[in-house]
Specification:
The complex is a heterodimer of chains A (about 90) and B (about 600). Chain A is mainly α and about 90 residues long. In chain A, about 90% of the residues lie in helices and about 0% in strands. Chain A contains 3 helices and no strands. Chain A is elongated and about 70 Å long. The mean pLDDT of chain A is about 80. Chain B has about 600 residues and is mainly alpha-helical. Chain B has 2 domains: about 325 residues, no CATH class; about 240 residues, Up-down Bundle (Methane Monooxygenase Hydroxylase, Chain G, domain 1), CATH 1.20.58. Helix content of chain B is about 80%, strand content about 0%. The longest helix of chain B has about 35 residues. Chain B is elongated. In chain B, about 45% of the residues are buried. The chains are: A mainly alpha (about 90), B mainly alpha (about 600). The interface between A and B is medium-sized, with 23 and 20 residues.
Chain lengths: ~90, ~600
């Protein structure tokens, strides 16, 4: 095995934790995107809905999605912070 | 089609027969009481399962000879082989004794019953069990009203006996006129034809009288009056034995598979014994003569000789078949395998699925989904809504509002047939799978799936209570009460509709959608309780009814939570760790419910 290939493997091994966290961020962002799409659909439905009970139910769903999205965004922030901390040169 | 028309036909026939014949009414009432008595006996014995009675029974029937002695003694004491046979069917049905022990008791009962012939012929005595029915009924009812389970069990047993006695009594009363007009001497015949005809007559009389003792009484009276010859009387006695099997067949209609197997063994035993007796009637009659001389019975004392014949051919039957009992038991177990109608069979739990951890998980998951489908149907009907209504897009609140009747379903029965049986199979399958090599992930998934199955079972259990109360108050004429129950029904129906749709769609967000259902459920609960408080304050509803509605609301909350928990497990994909972090926790859900 060539030296640089070997070095690449060592780097991958040392960065394993970082990679996992990046994967996590990517997955959460994917779900957040889908939630956003769902939220948009529900908003469209809410605009067309006349029945008060049905409107109430749609609004509740929107609130739940909003809370879930907020939770997701916070989680992404946390992960990013953690990555930045790791990247800082150690004294 | 046949099933649909058979019930109205039977009912129409019964109604017509009741109209034209009061005797028939009495006989039919007798049969109804008799079968009801059987059900009571079964309930009674169930109360003692696992207790002292089981230990006594097991100890006195753990060997074939003990079962034989038990059957003989109890029949001699009770003077009714039918009764002992019926009780044995109950024992086997409630799995208190094994099938082999049951066969032993039945064989013993066949010998025990011959003591009746000796009593009638020798002493002219017969214990009249019907006379005990009334006091036993009263005592039984007093015991039934007690709180203790043992007392209740004793009460059921006593009621069971009383109804059996009463049933037999009614049947006999109804046939009294028939018995008086039946003249056997008109049918005197000899030779093989005579033997066959009189066997059939004996059988027919026993079927009609529901008691081989009663038939023996007729035979002995007829023989002493010279209405039938000794030879024909022997054939009648064989027929009486065959006829008594009908009683046990009747009793086994209400019994489970074990009871039906025992009934089959009884028929087998009596038919073989009768066949042997008919084939060797000459030889047996000769032996009777020899034994009679030896015992000091006069040559012309046909009554005692008949009793001796009765005993001899029954003992012969037992001796012939005793060595074959284990073989008969295994044959019955193998061939009488039909499953009671309606019991749900697993669709995916096949032995091949046990091969790998992945196939086990997949099969169990499919089966739990199957269980969910069954629970969905049962819950929909429990709400008095059709599955098609919930599956459609029509307004559920409208469907609930215009409900005219609560579906008269037996939730307890359906629970046993469609839910519990399947849950048992799932638990057994998982236990079998755990004996094999598995992965950590598969073990965890199986654990979760078992919990999902249990959640579904719990949800249906909640419906048992809810349905009882819905039947009473669901369509109340008090508008305030009706509206609250409509609210409860609509809420559960909406959850069922949502869950069905979620189970059908399979995108990444399905699992997260459950949070909205949880918030909605909490919100619906708050709304209902607030409204009830308001109504109690303004005296628009009695506090007692309000608390009943609150209880029912609690059942619905439990049902919904259990369903959501189970569906959450069923919809979860192994890789879905990310979505987990987006789920709202208990505090966040409550905050949202309060906000809206």
């Amino acid at each position: 095995m060539k030296a640089n290939k070997l070095l690449e493997r060592v780097k991958q091994f040392l960065d394993a934790d970082r990679n996992t966290q990046l994967d996590k961020i990517r997955s959460i962002r994917k779900v957040l995107k889908e939630l956003k799409e769902k939220e948009r659909n529900l908003r469209d439905k809410l605009e067309d809905e006349k029945d008060s009970e049905a409107r109430e139910s749609l609004q509740l769903r929107l609130d739940v999605i909003y809370a879930q999205r907020k939770k997701g965004v916070d989680r992404v922030q946390e992960l990013k912070e953690a990555l930045k901390e790791e990247a800082k040169p150690k004294d | 089609m046949l099933k649909k028309i058979s019930l109205p036909l039977v009912l129409a026939f019964l109604a017509y027969a009741f109209w034209v014949s009061s005797d028939f009414t009495e006989i039919a009432a007798g049969i109804a009481l008799f079968m009801f008595g059987m059900l009571c006996l079964e309930d009674g014995f169930k109360a003692f399962t696992g207790g002292t009675l089981e230990t006594i029974l097991r100890k006195s029937t753990d060997k074939l000879w003990k079962s034989l002695v038990f059957g003989m003694t109890s029949t001699t004491l009770m003077q009714s082989s039918s009764l002992v046979s019926l009780i044995t069917v109950s024992f086997v049905s409630s799995e208190m004794i094994t099938l082999a022990a049951g066969i032993g008791i039945i064989m013993g009962a066949n010998i025990g019953t011959t003591t009746g012939a000796w009593l009638i012929a020798g002493l002219g005595l017969k214990v009249d069990i019907a006379a005990y029915a009334m006091p036993v009924l009263v005592f039984g009812m007093v015991f039934m009203m007690q709180k203790s389970k043992t007392h209740k069990g004793i009460g059921y047993l006593m009621l069971g006996f009383a109804f059996l006695f009463l049933g037999i009594h009614f049947m006999k009363e109804g046939f009294e006129s028939f018995q008086q007009s039946f003249d056997l001497s008109e049918y005197g015949m000899t030779g093989f034809a005579g033997l066959m005809v009189f066997t059939l007559i004996g059988m027919a009389i026993t079927v009609i009288m529901q008691s081989s003792h009663a038939t023996l009484l007729i035979i002995i009276t007829a023989l002493s009056a010279g209405q039938v010859s000794y030879e024909n009387a022997l054939a009648l006695a064989i027929g009486a034995n065959l006829g008594s099997t009908i009683t046990i067949i009747l009793g086994s209609i209400a019994a489970n598979l074990g009871g039906k197997r025992l009934a089959a063994s009884h028929v087998l035993f009596n038919v073989i014994t009768a066949a042997v007796a008919i084939t060797f009637i000459g030889q047996i009659a000769w032996t009777v003569d020899q034994l009679a001389t030896f015992m000091g019975i006069r040559d012309d004392d046909f009554l005692l000789k008949l009793a001796l014949f009765h005993t001899l051919f029954n003992v012969l039957g037992v001796l012939l078949l005793m060595p074959w009992v284990p073989k008969i038991e295994s044959l019955l177990l193998r061939y009488i395998q039909f499953k009671p109608k309606g019991i749900e069979q697993p669709l995916y739990l096949v032995p091949q699925a046990l091969e790998t951890p992945a196939t086990v998980v997949s099969a169990v998951k499919q089966e739990v989904k199957h269980l969910f489908e069954n629970a969905y149907g049962l819950l929909a009907h429990g709400l008095s809504l059709k599955r098609s209504t919930i599956d459609s897009s029509e307004s559920l609140s409208e469907a609930v509002k215009y409900t005219r009747r609560i579906f008269p379903i037996d939730v307890e029965d359906l629970y046993e047939e469609k839910i519990k049986s399947l849950h048992n199979e799932i638990v057994t399958f998982i236990a079998d799978a755990q004996l094999r090599e598995s992965t950590q992930a598969a073990t965890e998934e199986l654990y979760a799936l078992r919990q999902a199955s249990r959640d579904i079972v719990e949800a249906v259990k909640g419906m048992k209570h809810l349905h009882t109360n819905l039947s009473q108050h669901g369509l109340s004429t008090n508008l305030a009460v009706r509206e609250r129950y409509d609210q409860i029904r609509t809420h559960l129906a909406e959850v069922l509709r949502e869950l069905r749709q979620l189970m059908a769609t399979d995108d990444d967000l399905t699992h997260l959608s459950l949070d909205a259902l949880r918030v909605e459920s909490q919100k619906a609960r708050r709304k209902l309780i607030d409204e009830l408080d308001e109504m109690i304050r303004h005296r628009r509803i009695a506090a007692s009814i309000a608390t009943s509605i609150m209880n029912d609301e609690a059942y619905v909350t439990d049902i919904v939570n259990n369903l959501l928990d189970s569906v959450s497990i069923l919809l979860k994909k192994p890789q879905e760790k990310v979505e987990d972090s987006l789920h709202l926790d208990e505090k966040e859900l409550t905050e949202l419910a309060e906000k809206n």
